[in-house]
Amino acid sequence: MPDVAAGAAPEMDAARAACTDALGVLAAARPDLLVVVGPAGQSGYGTFPQGTPGSFRGFGVAVDVRLGAAADTVSEGELPPSLAVGAWLLERTGWADAPIEGLGVGERLAPERCTELGRATGARAGRVALLVMGDASACRTVKAPGYLDERAAPFDAEVARALGAADVTAVQALDAGLAHELKASGRAPWQVLAGAAEGADLSGALLYEEAPYGVGYLVATWS
């Protein structure tokens, strides 16, 4: 987010452009429901209705967001950071193509539970689209949040290959323990996506892959 990145914002221009392209793919799918999925701490587990607010004030910037248009149902909670970023992306691109819900997933959720949750999410409506948030490893350099771990680059390369190819089996096979050690917060949300995509015969495209700040960032689409 430019407001959070401040002077470093131009470094992420390509990533933001890729996110815009990915949202275009979601809109073109003409879904009946969009579910924003992302990692969350314990207070952010579970579902969030359309209209739930989020904020980046904890990062020192006075930026507030909302998960889609305000709804009749008033949410008592606040979006976890990953879903707040998703809401910001949707606001930035003017999403108005389908109703929206949020789903916060525990980063340590077991792969088989992620698959079950994905299947249930995919059955929420006739045509369900997922906007899935989550970083790859945070251990790519000595200045990374998790310092340098030689396992990080190969792990991220396999993630990029699997997501770029819409390889459901490979995503489901990602090692939860290794992902946790490498601080890859996206592992559980990706596996929710894989559960939702079982049997859908989707194709994938990798739109962006870099490791700014020693953290694996990638953007991919399944359609």
UniProtKB/TrEMBL annotation:
| Identification of the protein by name | Aromatic ring-opening dioxygenase LigA
